[in-house]
Specification:
It is a single chain. The protein is mainly beta. The protein has a domain of about 100 residues. Helices cover about 15% and strands about 45% of the residues. Strands 2, 4, 6, 8, 9, 11, 12, 14 and 15 form a 9-stranded parallel sheet that branches. It has a 6-stranded parallel sheet with strand order 1-3-5-7-10-13, with no helix packed on it.
């Protein structure tokens, strides 16, 4: 098991393909293609080139990344970094000079609550139906009879 503060490094000259599982934090200076699962943080250095899906506690991208990122806390896109893909996190920081092409989902709870949150947000974005709207004719104007009837009942 990884000790506190231990960081696994994929060196600048290394090219890995497959699934990387780290019991601690991970720093990538080289190239990775596949899956990255870390129980700690993942840091992609400026010279890194990663084509993978990442699951970790926190992620910092300073290099080139293509894929999806799912983190428990914070995702950060550093100056000069590029993300082509989607990010799910509680907090997202994009520094000036960072490039983000994709969608961000600011997940405040567990993944099990996502469908409930989406339904709740969808219902809030729909305007409430009201019965107090006047009836309109085919050209969008109220009919004269309906207008006079409404005036008569309000007197």
């Amino acid at each position: 098991m990884a000790q506190e503060g231990e960081v696994t490094v994929v060196g600048q000259g290394a090219r890995l393909e497959g699934t990387i599982v780290s019991a601690g934090s991970l720093r990538i200076d080289g190239q990775v293609k596949g899956q990255i699962n870390a129980d700690g943080d993942v840091m992609l250095s400026p010279q890194s080139q990663v084509d993978a899906d990442i699951r970790a506690d926190n992620v910092v991208v300073a290099g080139r990344f293509k894929g999806n990122i799912v983190v428990k806390a914070k995702a950060e896109l550093a100056r000069g970094g590029r993300v082509d893909g989607n990010i799910t996190s509680k907090s997202l920081i994009v520094q000036e000079g960072g490039i983000f092409c994709g969608q961000s989902n600011m997940d405040q709870g567990s993944s099990a609550s996502q469908p409930q949150q989406a339904a709740s947000q969808a219902s809030r974005s729909q305007p409430a139906a009201t019965s107090a709207q006047p009836a309109t004719g085919p050209n969008g104007a109220e009919s004269k009879a309906e207008t006079e009837s409404a005036r008569a009942t309000h007197r």
